[in-house]
């Protein structure tokens, strides 16, 4: 029996990266304190440590990867500038170190921009941001290439060491650099508040709290910057205070994950066992905790049907066999040879904490599915109506009388927010899922009429 390649211990790669960052920052500080460059060293430590912490809490988290990569770039720039600032300008190694301290500036700004745009879950706010990301990549590559080949940014970076392999830049290169580089840096930095604002408008709950943490940290850094400019005529205090932003951002990401996990595990206590649509509530809680669409399935090993999804979809997925469910799904055994499943539609491996959380949610799914009194799963045939609550039975009777939801509201003196969930629960308990070629309302009424016919002989005997 052959086995795959051995896996590295969990967290080893982020730990090694952090070790390299600490080594570079320590080496740079050993050259002396250069206040103009000090913020780069502090930012390197902040980004790298926070990124590694996020990756430890949630393996392969895209936001953690972006933070860690930013820390590496900041550490290289800090070390290179420190060596180039204090070293012998005639030394070849010093010239190469100074070169490394300058040309990745555009790359660092681009990584920070991507981290802000993807904050807090590491995903773009919408597919419409993909062209924006492509433009960011092109700008960063172009500016980095120009700075790599010629000393066009040495003066702005405060580096006086000669370029290691190029003399003064040609006039055409200088003109292109002046027209592209610093305007691009400004545009990318203006994109930070724009991205946060757009994310805030569409966010709810935990995501908004994480964004609020980031905004408070950024506001504090800006306040310190203003005080430094007004009081001491220097931006150094504000640049040093900027290290607070990645620290708070990382803590907010991790705290948001813990809060989402707690909310997912306690959703039933908040809703109660008599809630109208427990499978959908469970899918909602799972989706929020895992950051991906989730669904709850019920049936047999040969045929499972969805009974709850989040986000809501226009048409339920087609029935599938248990063996065809996506990798990472959790199957649960139920009574009467039935099985259930909790499915999370997310690419990439799960962290250890996410695996445990999904296992706990699957245990809750077993309780939810056993709670449902669903009939035999045969196509779209409605199940028995004996599992309906009194309110649901009353709503079904009025549906059989031909009343619409609005008319049922008027008859029962209830709001539409009360009647519509009851109708949805009737459909769920009768195993009536939305299909393009069936009418669930008609099938529900047929199920009611069959149940009335089944009771008629008993009533006649009475």
UniProtKB/TrEMBL annotation:
Where do the HTH luxR-type domain residues begin and end? 381-451
Keyword DNA-binding listed: yes
Q: Which CDD domains match?
A: LuxR_C_like
For this entry, the protein name equals Regulatory protein, luxR family
Matches recorded under SUPFAM superfamilies: C-terminal effector domain of the bipartite response regulators
Transmembrane region(s): 12-30, 36-55, 64-84, 96-119, 131-152, 172-198, 210-232, 238-265
Could you state a single Gene Ontology molecular function term? DNA binding
GO biological process entries: regulation of DNA-templated transcription
Q: State the organism of origin.
A: Nocardioides exalbidus
């Amino acid at each position: 029996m052959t086995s795959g390649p051995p896996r590295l211990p969990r967290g080893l790669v982020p730990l090694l990266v952090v070790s390299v960052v600490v080594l570079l920052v320590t080496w740079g500080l050993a050259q002396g304190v250069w206040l103009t460059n000090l913020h780069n060293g502090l930012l390197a430590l902040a980004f790298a440590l926070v990124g590694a912490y996020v990756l430890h809490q949630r393996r392969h988290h895209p936001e953690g990867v972006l933070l860690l990569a930013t820390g590496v770039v900041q550490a290289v720039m800090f070390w290179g500038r420190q060596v180039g600032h204090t070293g012998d300008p005639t030394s070849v190694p010093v010239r190469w170190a100074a070169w490394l301290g300058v040309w990745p500036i555009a790359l660092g700004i681009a990584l920070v921009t991507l981290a802000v745009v993807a904050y807090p879950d590491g995903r773009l706010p919408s597919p419409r941001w993909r062209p924006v990301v492509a433009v960011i990549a092109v700008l960063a590559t172009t500016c980095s290439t120009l700075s790599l080949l010629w000393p066009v940014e040495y003066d702005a970076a405060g580096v006086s060491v000669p370029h290691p392999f190029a003399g003064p830049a040609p006039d055409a290169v200088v003109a292109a650099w002046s027209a592209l580089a610093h305007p691009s840096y400004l545009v990318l930095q203006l994109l930070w508040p724009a991205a946060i604002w757009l994310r805030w408008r569409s966010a709810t709950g935990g995501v908004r709290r994480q964004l609020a943490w980031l905004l408070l940290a950024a506001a504090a850094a800006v306040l310190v910057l203003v005080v430094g400019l007004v009081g001491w005529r220097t931006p150094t205090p504000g640049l040093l205070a900027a290290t607070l932003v990645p620290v708070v951002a990382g803590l907010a990401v991790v705290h948001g994950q813990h809060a989402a996990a707690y909310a997912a595990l306690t959703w039933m206590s908040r809703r109660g066992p008599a809630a109208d649509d427990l499978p959908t509530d469970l899918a909602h809680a799972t989706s929020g905790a895992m950051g991906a669409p989730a669904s709850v399935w019920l049936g047999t090993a040969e045929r499972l049907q969805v009974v709850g999804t989040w986000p809501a979809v226009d048409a339920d997925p087609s029935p599938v066999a248990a063996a065809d469910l996506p990798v990472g799904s959790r199957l649960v055994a139920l009574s009467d040879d039935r099985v259930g499943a909790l499915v999370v539609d997310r690419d990439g491996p799960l962290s250890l904490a996410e695996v445990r959380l999904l296992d706990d949610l699957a245990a809750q799914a077993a309780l939810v599915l056993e709670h449902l009194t669903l009939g035999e799963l045969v196509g779209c045939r409605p199940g028995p109506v004996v599992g309906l609550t009194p309110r649901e039975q009353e709503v079904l009777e009025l549906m059989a009388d031909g009343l619409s939801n609005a008319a049922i509201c008027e008859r029962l003196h209830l709001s539409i927010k009360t009647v519509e969930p009851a109708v949805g629960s009737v459909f769920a308990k009768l195993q009536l899922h939305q299909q393009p070629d069936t009418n669930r309302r008609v099938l529900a009424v047929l199920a009611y009429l069959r149940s009335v016919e089944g009771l008629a002989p008993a009533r006649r005997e009475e």
